[in-house]
Amino acid sequence: MSPIPLTVAGAEKLRAELHEMKTVQRPAVIAAIAEARSHGDLSENAEYDAAKERQGFIEGRIAELESKLANAQIINPALIDADGACVFGATVELKDFGGNVTVIYQIVGDDEANLKEKKISISSPIARALIGKYAGDIVEVVAPAGVREYEILNIQYIYYLQELVNNIDNYFILLKQIYFPEFNCKP
Q1: Separation CA 71–CA 5 (nearest Å)
Q2: Dihedral over alpha carbons 25, 27, 32, 33 (to 10 degrees)
Q3: Whole-angstrom Cα distance, residue 39 to residue 161?
Q4: CATH topology of domain 81-156
Q5: Does the predicted model carry a pTM greater than 0.85?
Q6: Angle value at C-alpha 24, between 113 and 67, nearest 5 degrees
Q7: What is the DSSP string of 78-147?
Q8: CATH 1.10.287.180 describes domain 4-75+168-183
Q9: Measured distance CA(108)–CA(73) in Å, rounded
Q10: What is the pLDDT of residue 187?
């Protein structure tokens, strides 16, 4: 399998989901299966069938997450010497000549893309057009809606560091839960 590019934040999000699947959802579905079994006849037990189906989904998702993380190429754009060029993980401010509006996107891996969060996939037409370009360049993007022109106004590589500073408490809690589960306390 080829490497899967992920930002540091994207990798942490996948690790958190994997942790949730293994420590919360898997035990819950095992308990649901045991409960359904205690009701007797499994041939007509809808609860049992639903729990087994849910278990299959959870185990499949765990395998998928483990595979993605094992093949992840984790990239922190703040640590890349891009010499001003647009690279994976960069946050790019663009002027859309078609609508005369300014937009800001971060170029992320396919699994992290979320237009509501202004995160675009590295494989999207706009990201492919931006990679390797510099502030001041004008790029043409061929998309299903037609050709659009953008001017690159600014490129930043510090997005993850800003996010980390803004959410430092949440990251420490998350890291503690993932890497030191023996210290987790439940109220």
Answers
A1: 9
A2: 120
A3: 52
A4: Chitinase A; domain 3 (3.10.50)
A5: no
A6: 45
A7: GG---TTB--TT-EEEEEETTTTEEEEEEEE-TTT-BGGGTEEETTSHHHHHHTT-BTT-EEEEEETTEE
A8: yes
A9: 12
A10: 44
- Residue recorded with tokens 């898997």: 26
**Gap between the Cα atoms of 82 and 141, Å rounded:** 22
User: pLDDT digits over 153-180, tens only?
Assistant: 999 886 555 555 555 666 566 666 666 6
Q: Which amino acid would we find at residue 186?
A: K
Within 8 A by CB and 6+ apart from 180, the residues are none
**Domain ranges for the chain:** 4-75+168-183, 81-156
Query: 145 and 121 in contact (C-beta within 8 Å)?
Result: no
Q: Are 155 and 85 in contact (CB under 8 A)?
A: yes
Residue whose token pair is 């690159």: 152
